[in-house]
Design goal:
The protein is α+β, with helices and mostly antiparallel strands. The chain is built from 3 helices and 4 strands.
């Protein structure tokens, strides 16, 4: 029979009272703790778990859009294959886009020509400055 030494409380004289007891009699107290999450804690853990999922979904969406755009242009000629040459004009003092549109395309509606010029040159508005160099649409 094996024995174990158990420590007990101090006796009346202040010394430790050591007693010999059988090993089956000594039981270790097992402490089980349980994690209790508050609502805020659940929100934090859910958010932490959702961030990587959202990042992966965003990356896939962006790469999928790029792949779809590349697939749509697969049959089209690339910039290196076709050289686009534009005619350019320099705006004179007092000249407007309306006057320019009437000069380069007298049979077309000037509003359509102006819209093409603004779009092609990525102008913020229809206002132009003297000396400004503009590319002209090829179809006019």
């Amino acid at each position: 029979m094996s024995t174990a030494i158990a420590m007990t409380a101090r006796g009346s004289n202040g010394a430790l009272d050591l007693g010999v007891v059988p090993s089956g009699a000594v039981q270790m107290a097992s402490v089980r703790t349980r994690l209790h999450l508050t609502r805020r804690g659940r929100v934090v853990f859910t958010t932490l778990a959702a961030i990587p999922v959202a990042a992966v979904a965003l990356a896939l969406a962006l790469n999928g859009g790029i792949a779809a755009a590349e697939g749509a242009n697969a049959g089209a000629a690339t910039v290196a294959d076709v050289a686009t040459v534009f005619d350019y004009v320099t705006i004179a003092s007092g000249q407007s886009l309306w006057q320019l549109a009437e000069t380069i395309a007298p049979t077309s509606d000037p509003r359509d020509v102006i819209a093409e010029i603004v779009s092609l040159n990525q102008l913020p508005s229809e206002n132009v400055q003297p000396g400004q160099r503009l590319a002209l649409p090829a179809r006019f």
